[in-house]
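Need Endolytic murein transglycosylase's 3D structure for a figure. Predict it.
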Amino acid sequence: MHLSPRPIFRNLISMKKVLLLSAICALLLIFIGYWLYLPASNIVLNRSFVINQGDSLKTISLRLHKNKFTKNKYAFFVYAYLLNKSKDIKAGGFKISASDNLSQILAKLTISGSYDFWLKIIPGQRIEEITSKFSFDPSLEGYLFPDSYLIPNYFTVDDASSTIKNNFDNKISNLNIPKNNLSQNITLASLLEREAKTKTDKQIVAGIINNRLKIGMALQIDASVQYARDLKTHPAKYWQPLTRNDLKIVSPYNTYLNTGLPPRPICNPGQGSIFAATNPTPSDYLYYIHGTDGVMHYAKTLSEHNQNISKYLR
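Structure prediction for Endolytic murein transglycosylase:
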């Protein structure tokens, strides 16, 4: 049997077409990739670009394009992803230019440095727990309002403190707290921040504390003793459970041994706790416990309180 060379010839032509088409596509992709890699503009003008804590690589890429730093909304995403650099990108404020190529932009967002940084204060943190290059004055305890702050690198601790204090003043301005009652209210709010979670519970506990204060009854708040204990020891982790010996610590912050509020706040309370301190819920309660069921249980008498302990803590 004699085989015709035509099918083989046709197959060779088809393969050549496929190879040629593949080569053209590859060159086109290289050209497009290179074009996207190039700066979006020739104009050298540094502008601010802020990366928020928790921003995803996609979010950053989209905002870079929206601000005309890149030629395509996914260009930076693909570039950083292929280089496995997404985890190296820092939160903060940066100075970049549309004349920067993708490599230069990535370098600025990872290594070359932010001109400012994020400082986060969490409700209930004491000053020692705030992760920062600053050592804040202990007298600011309670007044470092929980929030996320974009702090310029050139700021001193006084500059940062002033920024945070201004935010504190703005956030509490609508509560109309008299200046002569501010210290007392913030101290009470700091206790509520550590003692209760929900808005309702914070307000009820605020009422209970006020009831105890009126009759000269010791507040017996564990968080205040934890604060007193940790002032001396500065442990690796604060707010650990108390021991019986801890309750004997001689300190003005020990509300088991002393009546009245502690002399100063024990942490930095959030707006919800400050609101509760100024808007307590009136009641006849004098006692409360945190049950193992995750619920707070209240009592008017010691007998009822002991029943709650037997029922919800044992």
